């Protein structure tokens, strides 16, 4: 869980409190919205987060969805 919090702070620019809340939501439900971005920025953040996860040995996945 600490890695996810660090990732949310470093890549998605959450503060510690919102990162912890999102991490708990991810843990309880399996997913959460990390942020709303333009497609290009969302794509790059997903790539960066995936690379950081793999390099640290975590199988996290990130999904980009269009805002409804």
Detailed description of the structure:
By secondary structure, the chain is mainly alpha-helical. The protein is 59% helix and 0% strand. The chain contains three helices and no strands. It has helices spanning 2-10, 16-29, 39-55. α1 crosses α2 (16-29). The chain starts with a helix and ends in a 13-residue tail after the last helix.
Radius of gyration using CA atoms only: 11 Å
Unreliable stretches covering 5 or more consecutive residues: none
Mean pLDDT: 96
Order of helices and strands: HHH
The percentage of residues in β strands lies in under 5%
What form results from the Cα inertia axes? Answer: globular
Largest sheet, if any?
A: none
Helix content: 55-70%
Oligomerization state: single chain
Q: What is the number of strand segments?
A: 0
Structural category: mainly alpha
DSSP helix count?
3
End-to-end CA span: 29 Å
Keywords, please?
mainly alpha; 68 residues
Task: Break the fold down into its secondary structure elements and pairings.
Layout: H1 2-10, H2 16-29, H3 39-55
Brief description of this entry?
The chain is mainly alpha-helical and 68 residues long. Helix content is 59%, strand content 0%.
């Amino acid at each position: 869980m600490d890695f996810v919090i660090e990732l949310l702070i470093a890549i998605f620019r959450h503060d510690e409190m919102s990162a912890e809340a999102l991490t708990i939501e991810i843990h309880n439900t399996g997913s959460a919205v990390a942020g709303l971005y333009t497609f290009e920025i969302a794509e790059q953040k997903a790539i960066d987060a995936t690379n950081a996860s793999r390099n640290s040995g975590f199988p996290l996945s990130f999904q980009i969805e269009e805002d409804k």
